[in-house]
User: What shape does this take?
Amino acid sequence: MLNQFIETEGPVPVYDTCDILVVGGGAAGHSAAVAAVRAGAKKVILMERYGYMGGDATGGYVIMVPNLSWYDKSFVRGLQEEWFTRLKNIPGAVLGPDLSEIGSTEKIFVNRWKGIHDCASRAGFNGCKEQCLVRSVYFEPNQLKIEMDKMLLEHKENIKVLCHSWGVKPIMDGDAVKGVIFESKEGRQAVLAQVVIDATGDGDLFYQTGAPYEKLTDEGCRSSATALVWRIGGIDWNAYTQWLNTTPGAFGMIVQGLQKVAGYKTMPLPSNQNDICWMNNWFYGRDCSNINDITQTELEVRDSIRDIIEFFRETVPIAFSHAFLYDIAPQLGARCSRRLIGEYVMSIRDFATASKFDDVIAWHSTICQINDCGPVEIPYRCILPQKVENMLCPGRHLSADTAAIDWLNLIPQCVGTGQAAGVAAAVAVQDGVSVRRVDIKKVQDILVDQDVPLPRNEKFSAKAPDYQKTVEEHEYGLYTDLAKEYIEKEGSIDSYRQW
Ligand SMILES: Cc1cc2nc3c(=O)[nH]c(=O)nc-3n(C[C@H](O)[C@H](O)[C@H](O)COP(=O)(O)OP(=O)(O)OC[C@H]3O[C@@H](n4cnc5c(N)ncnc54)[C@H](O)[C@@H]3O)c2cc1C
Assistant: This one.
């Protein structure tokens, strides 16, 4: 069999030109486009391979955003908080403790939320000695799709959206990215841009530029797992959690039963409605940029759905006797594949020792327990590729090692790094400099204006002096037993895994 075919080079028509081209309209890319125009960019093109924005968060039915707060402070604000404040008044669109309630240890609130995964902390985590309320939000993915469109339409003079357009190849001039070739129903065309933001999640573009990157090789990490999420309707989640809490051995029965019936790891999680749950799943060691791995994931999950529903009906009739297949996510759940080796690579050490960075672009509470979920600084260099000019790479493919990636590729961190990429690209274009040489102080000040908390930033400290005080008082969540062990022994990363 012929194992190579030489494609004939030919002219590619230029579809359009712009200041900033964002490829991928997920949490990171959508945020980058919106943040860029709000920072003054005049012409942004947002290119998306599917017909809607949100990626994993909408099309992948990943409908839960955890740990936005630490103690009584909401650290992950900016565009991430805007999603939820916008959706708050839409009936049935979001569920989660209100901003005004976070940090509360009052039993009446804690009891109300503790059956809803991650909305009440485990005692001793999220900065609370007792269980307390955490800003974690469940949302209806189709409502978020609509809202993400609205956010773009509000800027329609400056953002041009290209749906059903698949970015396939960066246009290079030496080390500089000059645009992207894309495929669509209209054929193969090009968009030229001063800055290209690769927000594809799988580094579809940066891996072809010569920028260093790696693939996940560590099968133990959550990020190495593919998924296909689906939802069960007609259930009673409160009755299910009640049953779990009052039946000896119930949790083990569910975990083992599901593994046996499905043949892979899968668990139900609550949603924004009591009568619907979502089935999360984990196919470890599969690569979401490998055709065979993702095809297998699609087929195996769908093949198991009817059996899983039957299992629930038989095992927990009090909650599942009327259960039915509500829907299946329109797109694969992609956690991680290619990962940038950027100008800085985040590691466990940054969490365990609360590293401080002059180029900090996000200061996020996370799901990482080594620092008690306390805020961690994410530097600009994590989205800045080595060797290549005019490109930024926010989102789930950012630069982190195989342990830290599990804590940095969640929706909040994708929104946060996307927002920062958009602002940095806008500032670079306005100042006529490359994104490598952008005035980071200016970027940080604009981020603060866009409601992003940042440490040691004068504007932010003037606005909210108590944030710095909170982290210092609680020593950034350091000195947990895990952090002490890491600092003393630099032990194996297995002990620091989330799950
Ligand atoms: C099953 C599962 C459970 C998870 N659980 C949680 C959770 O509970 N909470 C949480 O916060 N996070 C969770 N995560 C992680 C989180 O959902 C993702 O890491 C995050 O949403 C990724 O955002 P992103 O914008 O970087 O990438 P994506 O959401 O993957 O967005 C990339 C976008 O780019 C588009 N695209 C890709 N390639 C191209 C191309 N070549 N040309 C044009 N467009 C392209 C895609 O269609 C997509 O819209 C989970 C992930 C999965 C899969």
Notes: The pocket of flavin-adenine dinucleotide is lined by residues 23-29, 47-50, 55-57, 60, 62, 64-66, 166-167, 199-201, 204, 227, 229, 280, 333-335, 395-396, 409-411, 414 (CB under 6 Å).
